[in-house]
Amino acid sequence: MTYERTGREPEDGSMPRPRLPAPPAWLRWLPLLYVAAVLLLEPATPVDWPVSFVLIAVPLVTAFAHGPGVVAAATMFALVLEGVLAGTPCCAGRSVGYLWDRHYVASYVCTALVGALGTILAAHRIRRERTLADVRFVAEIAQRVLLRPVPHRIGHLRLESLYLSAAAEARIGGDLYEAVPTRFGVRLVIGDVRGKGLLAVETAAALLGAFREAAYDEPELPALADRVDTSMSRRATQLGGSETSERFVTAVFVEIPADGRLVRLVNCGHPPPISLRADEVRELESGRPAPPLNLGMLVDDPFRLEVYPFGPGDQLLLYTDGVTETRDAAGSFYPLLQRLRSWGPLPPKELLERLHDDLLDYSHNGLQDDTAALAVCLHPEQPPVGASAR
């Protein structure tokens, strides 16, 4: 399963209360289908093979999709139906009824016992489902704090975000993104934390906190990346352990000035952004990308600035390696550039919706890694980039 987040949150920022997952329709109707099968088979079976005995399982079948009240009612229904079938002479060619035959009495006792156990099982299942729903609700709130919905509009820019979790129960991973309007222009970051689990989530939260603070202060993009790198190194040192240098984050820092005529990039070991124009789709590959954050000590001049043209109608796609490392049934990687070229020009919202559907279709709903993407498009006839709206 996957969890989707595309920036289409409620306008008031509210979160719906958790609801218990609805079981499949066939599972809800299974008890009635089971009883119908018994009623069809009972008249056709010999006296020595009364099919009505299998009604013992009705409470257990009901417990898979219904609550304890329904299971208790199904138990009573099964007991009454067993008595009716046992006491009806015409069933299975009998000349007399067997309502109080010892074998049938044993069947009644077993049905009542299974019904009691099924009622307990249903109550336990409901409690577990409610607990899971509450945990997922809290995790979703935590993710909204970690990955705030990006503005759909910042001046000339149109933005959309996508987040897909490979583990729907977890909901939170190490992929991250953010977009903030500053006096230097709109600044964005997308990143992928090495590893998984709580440590990855904590690292992503630390990086986003450092970026959100430094983005407003540092006039130069390489200085911003350096400041975030310092925060990551400090955090890794505080955690201690023998793998301090392996706690790294790949990231891309982006700056689009107020006039929107160019885009500045600092790539820290991350998959290169993709520039989409009406007649061109290409990767913005740096000849010498910087190492991932917390590995800057490996080189003397780690953060190099790259500048590219970015005119009206141009679009920038930032993504994590969960996109390009998605595999099909044959094990082939997802051909992102080929797909983008075949789709043609699409607005940010439609682009990410198409990417979302295509990733799930390509992997047969079997994503193995978290995936994040951020689409940014420059439109004319809009207010200056400094103004933002959600």
TrEMBL record:
<feature type="transmembrane region" description="Helical">
    <location>
        <begin position="104"/>
        <end position="123"/>
    </location>
</feature>
<dbReference type="InterPro" id="IPR052016">
    <property type="entry name" value="Bact_Sigma-Reg"/>
</dbReference>
<feature type="transmembrane region" description="Helical">
    <location>
        <begin position="25"/>
        <end position="41"/>
    </location>
</feature>
<protein>
    <recommendedName>
        <fullName>PPM-type phosphatase domain-containing protein</fullName>
    </recommendedName>
</protein>
<dbReference type="Pfam" id="PF07228">
    <property type="entry name" value="SpoIIE"/>
</dbReference>
<dbReference type="InterPro" id="IPR001932">
    <property type="entry name" value="PPM-type_phosphatase-like_dom"/>
</dbReference>
<keyword id="KW-0812">Transmembrane</keyword>
<keyword id="KW-1133">Transmembrane helix</keyword>
<feature type="transmembrane region" description="Helical">
    <location>
        <begin position="53"/>
        <end position="79"/>
    </location>
</feature>
<dbReference type="GO" id="GO:0016791">
    <property type="term" value="F:phosphatase activity"/>
</dbReference>
<dbReference type="InterPro" id="IPR036457">
    <property type="entry name" value="PPM-type-like_dom_sf"/>
</dbReference>
<keyword id="KW-0472">Membrane</keyword>
<keyword id="KW-0378">Hydrolase</keyword>
<feature type="domain" description="PPM-type phosphatase">
    <location>
        <begin position="157"/>
        <end position="378"/>
    </location>
</feature>
